[in-house]
Each structure stands twice: as structure tokens, then as C-alpha cells.
Amino acid sequence: MKKIYMLVAVLALTITACKDDYISLLPEGSLPPANFYQTDEQLQSAAIAAYVPLRDVLWNDFFASEMHADNTHYQPSPNNRGSANVFRESGADWNNESTNDYINSIYFHSYTCISRANILIGRIPDAKKATEAGKAKAEGQAKFIRALNYYKLVRLFGGVPLHLIEVTKAEEAFLPRASVEEVYAQIIADCQDAIAKLQPPAKFPQTGEATKGSATVLLADVYVTLKRYPEAETLLNTLPAMGYKLTAEYADAFKPANKNKEESLFEAQYQTIAGNGNQPNSFPQAFLPKTANTTLITGAPSSNTVSSGGWNKPVQDLIDAYEPGDKRLDASIAVAEGTYDDSYVMTLSANKSVLNYVPAPGKVGQPYIKKYLDLPFIIAGSSSSNWPIYRYAEALLLLAEALNEQGKSPLTPLNAVRKRAGLGDITETDKEALRDIIFHERRVELAFENKRFNDLQRDPKGLAIMEAYAIKAKATYPLLSPTAFNIQAYKFLLPIPQSERGLNPDLTQNPGYSN
């Protein structure tokens, strides 16, 4: 009976995938799969399809990264206790549960990326009309995508099922959890193969496809996480020769005019132009305060965020972390000023700088993320800004970390990042002190780029940092549930989704979780 239930579930998922994804990618009149993966152009189309679910991963990622750390919080919705709001708030409040749909969606969307990558990898050997260069490019991209998503999964959930082939039978769909070591071994192998098969950027701006540089920084990031610092150092030192460098100003790195330019190692692609499969970036809308009219900030008419806004709100703890004179603060955060009603909906009266902000009499200020705003919005609630997944600034900070942990001086790459921010050089030489400085630099340089929670996972002081922040959060937010911010070491891994465990009895749960 169990096998019949599993087979029905697989068939249902297959039908759903065909309805929602497959048909949309191959409309009526297109070639069937057996004849499709044949030419360079067809392989590249399949690679592009594998990138698309990254947008779905990102849409939920900030709930498990910035909001699940000490960088951002949310505006409460006391009059809207629908499941969507409750799930989002619970993730931010460390009330981790295996039934949280918003956190669980990261797991499922990551596997959608992996599934599409696996299909492409498996079809490449039979691409009779494709060139060797075309095959290499497609396989390199697919393995980068697979590695990127497994890297997200293993850090958030620990060991996970290791799917490496296209699923065509029920028994292939339900695997037990691989060990953390096995998952990392596959990530490394995929990255190494991607580096060998992909080329450096041919020119800037890039196309948005993964390149040798993308795979290089991903593998270096993995090596830093695994404390394989010499290997990370070697990889990171190859990036300047590929043409990567910092933009002149920090704010420039996020402007649509600078998409895919020299600071970009890999970005999720967005575009406000309608048609041709383009999709606008709606993150800035979600990051604005809940208000009936955002025109004062966005310049777009009829933009309402009452039901969509109020998420990923910068907290005072982060604002206070910026040093005086740090250009990144004003480039990253602004303050919406106005008044709140009883439902925590704001009527805007001014849009102000966060620098030395003091509320006007009778007004309150709401910090919001401005680094992704593309002003004025061409379409209400939408931006054409890309989402940075790896920037060259992060590569420099990874290099600083790798050097420091080997007892070498990290000051050259570290101070390059600080110089652009308008800050003076670090002269500290103590390894332990430098480790704290580098993690602090990552916090302010990479704020709102979904890096903070993973940094706290590997920072030796991560648990203590979150325990201290929890005390501040409980004193600041009066509407928190009594169980909010109960910080425990086991919660640095998220629970395996219960819906997945219901389908696959071989999936064990992470320690500390009841189901």
C-alpha cells in the first residue's frame, strides 16, 4: 500500500510539473523531449529553464537568512493572522516548525533547480547536433546550478537526499538523507567540473549566465565553510585576471545600469520589460512599509503595500553596526516617516535619510531597504534590479578570511572593501580580533543579500550573538509570541519539511524537532 501511495504521489507531482513548468517552457508545437536536447541552442534553453526557479528560492530566502538573524525583522500584522503572515513571522522569530510553508518552500524550490539541472546533465551525451563547446557550456552551467542549490540545502537543513539523475521511476524519487560529508563532496565535484567547462566572461556586462568566475567563487565559499583555506585562497586569487573588480561606489553595484558588470560574479536576473519571459523584481515592494500609497518613495502611482509590505525591515542593531562615515549605510537603508493606524499601516509624510535620523514631531520613522530600489518604478511595485548572489566584494572578504585563518595578513583585500566604503584602513594584526572584524565587515557590506544567517552558523560566536540579539528583540517588539527568540544551538539547522517526510518515510528529522 505504501508503494502504491508513493507512486500516486510521484505521478501527481509529475502531472503538476508538466502543467506548471514543462508546458510553459515547451508550448504547443514545440519539439518533444526526446527530440529537443539536440542542438547548442536547445541545450542553452534548457540551462536557462534551470535558472528560473532561483527566483522562487530567493523569494523565500530572506525569511531564513536576514530575518532569521540579527539584520532584519518585520512589521506586525495583528489584524491579519492568516497562515502566510504567521509562517513568515515564525521563521523570523525562531519558532522553527517542520510545517512552515514559507521556510519549506526553500527546500522544494531548490530541488526544482536540481531536478532541471539533472535532466539537462543526463540528456547532454545524446545531443547529436550539439558542438563539444556547446555541451561543455550547458553541462558547466547545470553543475553550477546543482552545486549552488545543494550548498544552500546542506547549510540550512544538513544532510539531504542526493538526487543526481533525472527521476523517471517511483523508487528513484524517495531517497534517504545523504551525510553532510557526501553532499559537500558532490558540491565540490560539481564546482570543479563547472570551473573546467565554463569560460571567463567574454565581456562586460555579462550575459547573466554562470561563468568560470561564478563557479570559482562558489567553490571558494564552500572551501572557506569547510575550513580548507589554502584551496580557497588559490581559487580567489584567479578572479582578478578574469576581469572582476569593485565598482567605484558601493551604491553603483546595485543600479540596473550596472547589471552583470565587473563586480558581478553571479546575479539572479530581473527585468521590468513585459513579455519574452522577463520578470520584474518585486522584492523592493515587499521591503517597503505597509502603506496605502508608496508614491512618495517610489514615484509610481497607485502602489499599495498594505498586504505585501513590511518584511525584511532593517533593525536598529544593524544600523548601529555601521561605523561613522560608512557610505554603505545611506546607500542601503532609508527611513519612511509618517503615522501608523491601529493596524500598523503607515501614512507616509516624508522619505528621509537614515543618517542621524530624528523623527519629526508627532511622526515615527520606519527604516526600509533601499539598495534595490530602481527609481522611479517603471511598473508600480516593480524594479528591474537584479539580485546579487555573489559579488567581487564578497570574494575579497572571503580571501581576507582565508588568509587570516592561515595566519597570513588579510589587510589588503579587507581594506580594499573598506576604502570604497569611505573608511580608514584596519591595522590590527591579532588573528582573533581580525576574525571578528572580517565577520563585521561581511555584515555591513553584504547586508540584505541573504548571507547573514549562514555567517552566524560558521562564526564561533554566532550562538552568543543571537542570544544577545534575542534579549534586545524581546525588549523591542511587544507583540512577539511568548515562544519567540528561544535561541537554541539545534535551531541553527532548520527542520526537514514534514510534508516531505510524510511522502518519504526514509527521511529522518533533524535533532531537537518533534516531527
Automatic annotation (TrEMBL):
Pfam family, any one: SusD_RagB
Compartments where located: Cell outer membrane
Family per record: Belongs to the SusD family.
UniProt keyword Signal, yes or no: yes
Record key words, sorted: Cell outer membrane, Membrane, Signal
UniProt keyword Signal present: yes
Every RagB/SusD domain range: 312-513
PROSITE patterns cross-referenced by the UniProt entry: PROKAR_LIPOPROTEIN
Protein name: RagB/SusD family nutrient uptake outer membrane protein
Annotated transmembrane regions: none
Primary location recorded for the protein, binned into one broad class: membrane
Species of origin: Chitinophaga alhagiae
Domain SusD-like N-terminal per the UniProt entry, residue ranges: 74-223
